Model the fold of this input.
Amino acid sequence: MPRIPYAEKGTEAEGATTVYAQLEGEFGFVPNLLKVLGHSGPATQAMGAVLDNLFHHLSLTPRIREMAYLTVARYNQCAYCVGHHSFFAKQAGMTDEEIALLGEAGLSNSVFSEGEKAVIRFALETTKNVAASDDAHTELQKAFPVHHVVEIAFVVATANFIQRIGKNFGIELEQ
Done:
């Protein structure tokens, strides 16, 4: 049970209605994360913009995006994000085995390329320590152009940001 009630469709704050409609059109429902934020129009609008950028405007492949996001979600033990992003990762071609290996185990597993291992390492170090090590940056920059490095950092930061909200409010995975 969430720590505050969800702002169900029709009860959301002024300014949240447009975001609710956009997400319902895209996903077929309003995610519970947004229903918690739906008590504040500005917070809902800001999260809507973040999600729009995350899913529609980055030049990263969906596989790399989901690899970075899910590494953070698994480390943070955010069942809500793991549930949603495992689905997105599978849509991006990731296997159940790959998803299960996102974390420390993935750093030494041959199922991932060196570039993918660099993403996992960067996501883990950033999540654990706020800033990744020089070695993690070097590995990431060897594997990806600078605009992808920036976007990977954006995905990792976004995942940590969203998970701080979700875990604090006890947001549940939709049925």
Summary: DSSP finds nine helices and no strands in the chain. The chain has two domains: 17-56, 62-169. The CA atoms of residues 31 and 58 lie 21 Å apart. The mean pLDDT is 97.
